[in-house]
Structure formats: structure tokens, C-alpha cells
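Researcher: I'd like a structural prediction for the single chain below. Treat it as a standalone chain; there are no partners to consider.
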Amino acid sequence: MLKNIPDVKLGIIAVSRDCFIISLSESRRAAIVKAFGNAASLYECKVTVENELDMLKAVEDVKKAGCNALCVFLGNFGPETPETLIAKNFDGPVMYAAAAEESGNSLIDGRGDAYCGVLNCSYNLGLRHLKAVIPEYPVGSAEDVAKMMEDFIPVARALIGLSKLKVITFGPRPQDFFACNAPIKGLYDIGVEIQENSELDLLVSYKAHANDPRIDDVCKEMAAELGAKGNKWPDFLPRMAQFELTLLDWAEKNKGAREYVVFADKCWPAFPEAFGFEPCYVNSRLASKGIPVACEVDIYGALSEYIGTCVTGAPVTLLDINNTVPQDMWEAEIKPKYDYKLNDTFMGFHCGNTPFCCLAPCSDPAVKYQLIQHRLLEPKGSEPDFTRGTLEGDIAAGDITFFRVHANADGKLQAYVAQGEVLPVATRSFGGIGIFAIKEMGRFYRHVLISKRYPHHGAVAFGHVGKALYTIFQYLGVEDIAYNKPAGCLYADENPFA
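Model: Treating it as a single chain, here is the predicted structure.
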């Protein structure tokens, strides 16, 4: 169970313009509550808002009920000032939705005109510079609005989490990875705190955890997760268990005024030699607990992973957009079975930070050693020692969303979202790796990732969650949100004659 993300307690407040029949809003609100699938996570406020005093009573009521997210429901036209002041006075994300008319036989006393009211509501929100989530088509039946609310919950979970998040780094960020060296002002713009530390701080803390009595229990957890095949060096586990406890204790002691924590750590080249192992497997285990640890001090990678964790309620990973799929592999194993061009495919890779539960069992996931670092840091021909610690295996096949929010060179936030899948094709390579397929990836690679100067890291959520991510980025004020455009729909800088 993930412990580093908020639980959403959603409330619903109905509003009514005083020249309309109040019972229309109330009966329509009751129908939504009945249609909502998870009654335990929804609180029905019985104060129907017609004026500002009602608004204060309703907000106080939902706060006492423990609500941290709201649906404001226009059961009829709605009072535009009180209904928008709900968003101003409530400390949490707010969604607005409205009632469709119910029957051609009830268009006199049963007509609510909420379709019209949403326009005034939106205008008033803009005048007051208030943020709110408004669904793509915010007017519907009780079942429609209940579905909008269900879609809002993962969005609200991410927004609440971000408002209470601290990014803890251990650096400095690597010289040869300037792409990860993004301005941090964007974090403050969306209410995220950051605490930057030295690698030496982490090393001192790690050494202080030597002989920690909890190490044996963590080793048993690791051994149980890895199984006999995956646990190639049982004697090596205590080093990694000691590090896991170091990070967890650091998070707890350094949260400060925040509730949630993610890490962005420098993991090479000095780390393995100084600490005695590669941190990848520990990073994967923390991601499984809802505490992403981004490689190479990638602050916005960690932020992106956390958003994905909140949206899915499940572990995520961070990967390099790494290498092309060889044409012979594509012709033999992809082209005959799947509707993807060669340049729709690529391999996503990292040394070994992807959670065990996200790897394909048939690839025999195991703790191994970092091949590239072994070549660089340990004597040629020697058995690996401190370059051990990667969790390696093919990433499990299934739907994915590849995404990132990032601060560009001018400090402005930008983001991309692309839905696709991991194919059930053996990679025949090393590390935590998978063959990814995204429609029109070649054009997306050139005209988004390259043209908009994105770094090589992308977050991966396991499932198609682009709708929620796009809504979150819009709410956060990200003006440039890119996606993989279909064939025939040109990017701004795409050569039409190419």
C-alpha cells in the first residue's frame, strides 16, 4: 500500500439561484450521490447555497466533515458570486459541474438552465482569478456527473499531494547531465518545496545507520520480493537495506511542514565507490512505497513521478528515452503482429530503478550489476563488487503513459503527455528496459522532445492516464502541454514538405 499520497475525501455542495426552485438542485444532488459508486468517499453537504451566508455555512460543513476536495454542483442556473466564493474559501481543489435537463415533459418548473449558468460561473471564476477544474463537457445527468467526480478524484489527489510535497535532493546535479539541471523556481510556482543537500550529508547519515537493528528485517523483505532467482547475492542485501533505512529516516526527519516527500539523488559516478553499491534496487523499492527516487538528481523527474503515483495510486518509474529498436527486431517481432511503424517504437531504459512489480516475471527480474559502471570503475575482468545493486528485467507489457513536467531554460513550466504501450517483446538487453510503442513517436520525438528541449528522462505511469495528467497540468498553469499529434496534424515547426 502506498503511504506517501493523500486520501481524497470528496464533498458535494449544490447551489441554487434564488429565483429558481431550490428543490430542483437538492433532488438532483441526491441523485448524484446515489449514482456515485464509492459512497464512503463522498460527503453530501445538505446546505444548499443560494447566498454568501449559505456559502460560509456550506464550506464550514464540508471542512468539519474532513473533505479535502469538492464538487460544486449547479442543479439550476446557480448564484454566480456565492458559488465561486466556495472555491475561494475552501482549501483544496474544486470541480464545477452542472445538471442537464431531465425530460421534455418537465421544461417549465423542471427546467434549471444550468447549461447557461456554467458560463456565468466560469466568467466569475476568471474575474476572481480562482482555479477550478471544469470537465470537458461539464453538464450531464446524475450518472454523468458521478463519472466526472470519479475522474476528478485522481486529479484532486495529485493536486493535494503537490500542495504538501517536498523534493529532497542529494547532489550536485551531474556535470554531463545538464538536461536534468533545470531551474527550481517552477517548483515554488506550484507550491512545492525543495531541500537540496550534499552527497556527503547522505554518506554521513548512511554510515550512522551501520548495525541498525532493523536491517535484518529489511533484508528478509528484499529476499522475499526477489525470490531465489532474483537474489543472486544474499550477502549483499545488508548494504542496500542500510541505505533504504537511511533514506526513509531522512524523509521522516526532514519533512518539516510538508506531508509528502520524493527524492532526487546523484547515483554516479562517485556514489557506488563511496557507498559500496548502486542505489537502483533501493530506489525501486521506495517507488513501490509511493516515494519515487529520481536518478541523476532529476528534480522534475521526481516531481513527474509523484504526480503519476498520485494519479494511478500505483508505482511508477523514470526511464531514459534511450535507444532505437533495431530494424531486424522490428521486422521479425513487431511488424507482423502490431500496427506500429519502426519509428513509433523505442526502448525505455534505466539501470534498475523500475519496481519489481512492474517487471515481466518471464524475464526473471534480479538484482545484478551496472554493466557500464563496472566497465568504468572496476578493474577489467574482475568480478563486480560495488557496481552491484541494479534491479534488471524487461518491463511488463501493457498500457503506459509517458509524460513529464519540466522547467525550461527561462524557468517556465512545460509538459508533455503521450499514451502508448509496452510491447510483449523480449528486449535481449540489460537494465530495467522495455520496448515502447507510441503512435507517431518519431514526429513527437523530433517536434516535441527535441524542439522544446526536453531532457532524456520521462516518467512512466502504468495505464492510460493522459486525461487526468492533462487536467492537472492545466490546473497548475502550464501553458505549453504537448502530446503526440496524429498523422496529418502538423506541429508548429514541422516541415510540411518533409
